[in-house]
Amino acid sequence: MERPGTKTRRTYRMTARAAATQATRQRILEATLELFTTRDYEDITLEDIANQAKVTVPTLFRKFGSKEQLIEATAQHARKTVLQQRYAATPGDARGAVENLLDHYELWGDRILRLLAQEHRVPAIRAVTDPGRVLHRSWVEVTFAPLLPPDKPARARRVAQLVVICDVYTWKILRHDLGLTRKEIARALLELITAL
């Protein structure tokens, strides 16, 4: 027969253990994201990730299996955050879409550019950037849907134009190469969009 309170203590310990496991996983994913978006793939070791996350390398292997699997898990983790932020834009509101886009690029733009610079030589990163392109196009189609022409060829052309206008490289040129402020970028993008 079980002593009174034993089941409660066991349940509490299991819950606490699950919370600690989840917190460790979160720390590992955040450390990986930070390193892979600020340094090149070849310059990051599992030891670097373990040190950043305050865990051991065997813990990384036990939870993720390999550096590539860790990158994929980190990409899925980041994708959830990006989806929530990007799809907060109201369809048909061009000004709101531009603000949403700039919120995203001010936080993620430089990270995305670092990943894109490595995708041609690192298949694990290409596996992250290709779905990013799909997400970007989908965001354009959903966000600007009410403003798109009904004619299929014209619609496809307009989507392609908007993909380019809203691309991270367009933001990079305006922000980094030309040194525009966020307000100036917002105005430039909105003028390009409304000119369509």
Quick structural gist:
With 196 residues, the protein is mainly alpha-helical. The chain is built from 9 helices and no strands.
List the helices and strands and how they pair.
Layout: H1 6-36, H2 46-53, H3 57-64, H4 67-86, H5 94-118, H6 123-143, H7 152-165, H8 168-177, H9 182-195
Notable traits:
196 residues; mainly alpha; Tetracycline Repressor, domain 2; elongated
Describe this entry's structure for a reader.
- The chain has nine helices and no strands.
- It is mainly alpha-helical.
- It has two domains: 86 residues, Tetracycline Repressor, domain 2 (Orthogonal Bundle), CATH 1.10.357.10; 105 residues, no CATH class.
- α4 packs parallel to α6.
- The radius of gyration is 21 Å and the shape is elongated.
- The termini are far apart.
- The mean pLDDT is 90.
Largest sheet, if any?
none
Summing up helix and strand content along with how strands pair, one would put the structural category as mainly alpha
Helix content: over 70%
Order of helices and strands: HHHHHHHHH
Instruction: Report the end-to-end length measured between terminal Cα atoms.
Output: 76 Å
Structural shape = elongated
Overall number of domains: 2
Number of strands: 0
* Continuous helix count: 9
Q: Compute the average pLDDT.
A: 90
Low-confidence parts lasting 5 or more residues at pLDDT below 50? none
> Mind telling me the C-alpha Rg?
21 Å
Strand content: under 5%
